[in-house]
Amino acid sequence: MNDTWIAAGRGGSDASMPAIVAHGLRKSFAGRGGTVEAVRGVDLTVRAGEIFSLLGPNGAGKTTTLRMLTTLLPIDGGSAHVAGIDVARRPHDVRRRIGYVGQLGGADLAATGRENLILQARLHGLSAKEARRRTGEVAELLALDGFLDRIARTYSGGQRRRLEVALGIVHRPEVLFLDEPTSGLDPQNRANLWDHVRALRETGTTVVLVTHYLEEADALADRVAIVDHGTVVAEGTPRELKQAIAGDAIVVRPKPQTADVERLRERLAREPYVEEARAEGDALRLYVDDGAEALPAVVDRLRADGVALAGIALSEASLDDVFLRRTGRSLRDARPHPDPDGALQEVAA
Amino acid sequence: MTSFPVQVRLLFSRKLLETLRAPAWVLVGLSTPLLYLALFAPLLDPLAGGPGFPRGDVLDVFVPGLLVLMAFGAGMGAGWIVVDELTTGVLERLRVTPASRLALLLGPVLRDVVVFAIPALLVVAIALPFGYRPAPGGIAVALVLLALLTAVVSAWSNALGVLMKETGSLAAIVTGLQLPLTLLSGVLLPLSIAPGWMRVLAHVNPLYYAVEAARDLSSGSILTADVGLGFLVIGALTVATLGWATRVYRVAVA
């Protein structure tokens, strides 16, 4: 056996080694309006066995990053190791160790679920017997049993997505990449798929989850990297990220006739316990260190100013608050990359 | 690791099963040559023995050309299917497996070869009672040559589909080339009756060599210059096209 093979074996089996290490990843696309830098220097470390989420708005460069890590796109700059293997130098060895569920899905709709799974397992090197056995196992794990021998075109959205996840794991990959796995699913199917992803972590699979749903990152991820305009703007556990910004948020909704929101914002921003105040339509969002302490003070202040309240709420900071503080925009209404070509590239690429 | 021949067999079976489950297209494909046999070949009868038709029955000249038409037609649709597999993410998923890129390409290419070969045998059989008299060995070799032609066209259409990513521009190129290539190869009427400039132009058309070789083979002349040239041109194209298309599969940003 040659050196490459020995190194591959060593790289794949060391549990203490990070599942993914990327330094300064870069990718540009030639667009109509010139070159678009989709990914501009992404650093990532994903630990073995964790669920790691790349969270960001559409066009942020998440999918492009994922496509470089999964050997689908050549890397323009920087380096990436997946399961200990250099992605640019040995893409073939990386493919043997990863599973990938793309945004488009990837199930062969003209074939049955079972045919899909057996082919995928065989192409990954399982014997015919092993492939049949593993197909049975993943079918049970993802609850595909009832329709495994039907043509995939007849599946419901949730069934099809579960088949696609099964295709990603049938060969027992060390690292599973999921790109927007719940997009287009109804809430029940989404919650159902979340359970399946959590169950995967129990089997020791490292999961990289690309999503623009902050609830999804919050619910599933052990650690999150927030991506915007092709760079990682924050990284940590959801808890760390939320604690790193002001602890809590107070949402104040004055009765419209009793206060002007912008004037009220300026007024409250001067209060010593308010770190930052933002107007959001007819409401105000105040970031404070300790919500329980600040809430009565806010209420007192408003009463003294003669402002009547339509509502007031105290919430722990969400990942959206983290995104807002880091980028100045809310993830919920963050527009895609300002260059339309860039956004198209991400969808097309 | 699953060996290369097994990968090819698995990927070919997938495509073949797909065809068997939707056989309508094979029947539509078969209807074209049968219509030519029924509604065009009789027009040639008065030309028997005249220029371009020196051999026995007109079908001895016409059927080999018809088989070339079928070989081209069986491969040219591959790009449409590959665009569909790009949109559903199937090709992308397969590209993240360690499967050989050549195997990924050969799956659909070999299916197209089968989709050419079986109807081609049928057409030969159907033409027999109407006077077609092929040399058994010769027609077998001709079918091998034309199977290579199907592989060339299929690999070319596959790669174009991956590069174009949508059926609009793919259709413009493939169907745009289909008519000039077939007209300028003498499939319907032999180019020996064509004006000199057409015969010169035909020499840049690979299909022309396939037609000339297929006619020689069908008549039983196996060791002729035209047959050698046909295998040389189509063989070289097979190697070049498969190589190029595999490269497209490897680097495809799809």
Structure in words:
- The complex is a heterodimer of chains A (349) and B (254).
- Chain A has 349 residues and is of the alpha/beta class.
- Chain A has two domains: 3-241, Rossmann fold; 246-316, 2-Layer Sandwich (Alpha-Beta Plaits), CATH 3.30.70.
- Helices cover 38% and strands 27% of the residues of chain A.
- The longest helix of chain A is centred in the middle third of the chain and has 16 residues, at 187-202.
- Chain B is built from twelve helices and no strands.
- The A-B interface holds A 70-74, 92, 95-96, 98-111, 115, 119-120, 122-126, 151, 167, 348-349 and B 1-2, 6-7, 10-11, 14, 17-18, 21-22, 85, 87-90, 92-99, 165, 251, 253-254.
Task: Note the topology.
The complex is a heterodimer of chains A (349) and B (254).
Chain A lengths: L2 H11 L6 E12 L2 E13 L4 E5 L6 H8 L7 E6 L2 E2 L4 H5 L2 E4 L11 H11 L4 H14 L15 H13 L5 E5 L7 H16 L3 E6 L2 H7 L2 E6 L2 E6 L1 H7 L3 E7 L6 H9 L4 E7 L2 E6 L2 H14 L4 E8 L2 H9 L12 H9 L1
Parallel strand pairs in A: 3-8, 3-9, 6-7, 7-8
Antiparallel strand pairs in A: 1-2, 1-4, 4-5, 9-10, 11-13, 11-14, 12-13
Helix pairs in contact in A: 4-5
Chain B lengths: L3 H18 L2 H16 L1 H4 L13 H19 L1 H10 L2 H6 L5 H27 L8 H29 L2 H17 L12 H7 L3 H13 L6 H27 L3
Helix pairs in contact in B: 1-7, 2-4, 2-7, 4-7, 4-8, 4-11, 5-8, 7-8, 7-12, 8-9, 8-11, 8-12, 11-12
